[in-house]
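Exercise 3.2. Students should predict the tertiary structure of the chain below and write it as C-alpha coordinates, then compare their answer with the key that follows.

Predict this chain's 3D structure.
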Amino acid sequence: MNDKISELIISLKNAGMAGNATTSVPASKLKKNVLLLLKKEGYIKDFQEEGNGVTKSFTVEIAYKKDGTPQITDVRRVSKLSVRKYTGYRDMRPVKYGHGVAVLSTPLGIISGKEAKAKKVGGELLFTIW
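Answer key:
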Protein backbone atom coordinates (compact mmCIF):
# COMPACT_ATOMS: atom_id res chain seq x y z
CA MET A 1 0.00 0.00 0.00
CA ASN A 2 1.11 3.54 -0.64
CA ASP A 3 -1.05 5.20 2.01
CA LYS A 4 0.69 4.53 5.34
CA ILE A 5 -2.04 6.11 7.50
CA SER A 6 -4.87 4.12 5.90
CA GLU A 7 -2.89 0.92 6.26
CA LEU A 8 -2.35 1.61 9.96
CA ILE A 9 -5.88 2.59 10.98
CA ILE A 10 -7.59 -0.16 8.97
CA SER A 11 -5.20 -2.73 10.42
CA LEU A 12 -6.07 -1.56 13.96
CA LYS A 13 -9.81 -1.59 13.24
CA ASN A 14 -9.74 -5.05 11.64
CA ALA A 15 -7.67 -6.54 14.48
CA GLY A 16 -10.18 -5.22 17.02
CA MET A 17 -13.19 -6.50 15.09
CA ALA A 18 -11.54 -9.93 14.76
CA GLY A 19 -10.87 -10.05 18.51
CA ASN A 20 -7.08 -10.21 18.16
CA ALA A 21 -4.93 -9.07 21.08
CA THR A 22 -2.19 -7.62 18.87
CA THR A 23 -1.46 -6.66 15.29
CA SER A 24 1.74 -5.89 13.43
CA VAL A 25 2.31 -2.98 11.03
CA PRO A 26 5.44 -1.76 9.22
CA ALA A 27 7.26 1.01 11.10
CA SER A 28 7.71 4.67 10.16
CA LYS A 29 8.14 7.94 12.07
CA LEU A 30 4.66 9.14 11.07
CA LYS A 31 3.03 5.91 12.27
CA LYS A 32 4.94 6.14 15.55
CA ASN A 33 3.57 9.63 16.21
CA VAL A 34 0.02 8.53 15.32
CA LEU A 35 0.34 5.49 17.62
CA LEU A 36 1.58 7.72 20.47
CA LEU A 37 -1.53 9.88 20.08
CA LEU A 38 -3.86 6.86 19.91
CA LYS A 39 -2.24 5.45 23.06
CA LYS A 40 -2.70 8.77 24.85
CA GLU A 41 -6.37 8.87 23.79
CA GLY A 42 -6.96 5.26 24.96
CA TYR A 43 -7.61 3.58 21.60
CA ILE A 44 -4.62 1.23 21.94
CA LYS A 45 -2.92 -0.18 25.04
CA ASP A 46 0.70 -0.01 23.95
CA PHE A 47 3.07 -0.67 21.06
CA GLN A 48 6.62 -1.95 20.68
CA GLU A 49 9.10 -1.49 17.85
CA GLU A 50 10.64 -4.74 16.65
CA GLY A 51 13.27 -5.66 14.09
CA ASN A 52 16.20 -3.66 12.81
CA GLY A 53 17.23 -1.83 9.69
CA VAL A 54 14.66 -1.75 6.91
CA THR A 55 12.50 -4.52 8.39
CA LYS A 56 11.27 -2.64 11.48
CA SER A 57 7.65 -3.07 12.51
CA PHE A 58 5.33 -2.10 15.36
CA THR A 59 3.46 -4.70 17.39
CA VAL A 60 0.34 -2.92 18.65
CA GLU A 61 -1.80 -4.11 21.59
CA ILE A 62 -5.48 -3.46 20.89
CA ALA A 63 -7.53 -1.86 23.71
CA TYR A 64 -10.92 -3.36 24.60
CA LYS A 65 -13.79 -2.09 26.75
CA LYS A 66 -14.95 -4.03 29.84
CA ASP A 67 -17.68 -5.77 27.85
CA GLY A 68 -15.13 -7.11 25.33
CA THR A 69 -15.85 -4.77 22.44
CA PRO A 70 -12.88 -2.96 20.90
CA GLN A 71 -12.25 0.71 21.68
CA ILE A 72 -11.96 1.41 17.94
CA THR A 73 -15.46 1.09 16.53
CA ASP A 74 -14.80 2.77 13.20
CA VAL A 75 -12.37 5.08 11.41
CA ARG A 76 -12.71 7.49 8.51
CA ARG A 77 -9.79 8.69 6.42
CA VAL A 78 -10.46 12.35 5.63
CA SER A 79 -7.34 13.61 3.86
CA LYS A 80 -6.30 11.19 1.14
CA LEU A 81 -3.29 11.03 -1.14
CA SER A 82 -5.39 12.35 -4.03
CA VAL A 83 -7.29 15.06 -2.12
CA ARG A 84 -5.78 16.78 0.89
CA LYS A 85 -8.15 18.36 3.44
CA TYR A 86 -6.94 21.21 5.62
CA THR A 87 -8.80 22.84 8.48
CA GLY A 88 -8.35 25.77 10.82
CA TYR A 89 -8.86 25.50 14.56
CA ARG A 90 -12.05 27.57 14.33
CA ASP A 91 -13.58 25.00 11.97
CA MET A 92 -12.97 21.98 14.25
CA ARG A 93 -16.19 20.20 15.25
CA PRO A 94 -16.67 17.36 17.75
CA VAL A 95 -16.43 13.86 16.29
CA LYS A 96 -19.46 11.66 17.04
CA TYR A 97 -20.83 14.12 19.62
CA GLY A 98 -17.54 14.19 21.52
CA HIS A 99 -17.02 10.39 21.59
CA GLY A 100 -14.39 10.39 18.85
CA VAL A 101 -11.11 12.07 18.02
CA ALA A 102 -9.95 13.99 14.96
CA VAL A 103 -6.24 13.52 14.21
CA LEU A 104 -4.36 16.40 12.57
CA SER A 105 -0.89 16.93 11.18
CA THR A 106 0.14 20.44 12.25
CA PRO A 107 3.36 22.45 12.54
CA LEU A 108 3.39 21.26 16.18
CA GLY A 109 3.27 17.58 15.11
CA ILE A 110 0.49 15.00 15.15
CA ILE A 111 -2.17 16.21 17.60
CA SER A 112 -5.87 15.68 18.32
CA GLY A 113 -8.60 18.12 17.32
CA LYS A 114 -9.12 19.17 20.94
CA GLU A 115 -5.44 20.00 21.34
CA ALA A 116 -5.44 21.91 18.05
CA LYS A 117 -8.35 24.01 19.22
CA ALA A 118 -6.71 24.69 22.59
CA LYS A 119 -3.37 25.63 20.98
CA LYS A 120 -5.12 27.59 18.20
CA VAL A 121 -3.39 25.79 15.35
CA GLY A 122 -4.79 24.25 12.17
CA GLY A 123 -3.44 21.66 9.79
CA GLU A 124 -4.16 18.64 7.63
CA LEU A 125 -7.08 16.57 8.93
CA LEU A 126 -5.71 13.03 8.58
CA PHE A 127 -8.56 10.91 9.95
CA THR A 128 -11.31 10.62 12.55
CA ILE A 129 -11.63 7.67 14.91
CA TRP A 130 -14.40 6.62 17.31
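Discussion points: The domain at 75-129 is CATH 3.30.1490.10 (Dna Ligase; domain 1). The chain is about 25% helix and 30% strand.
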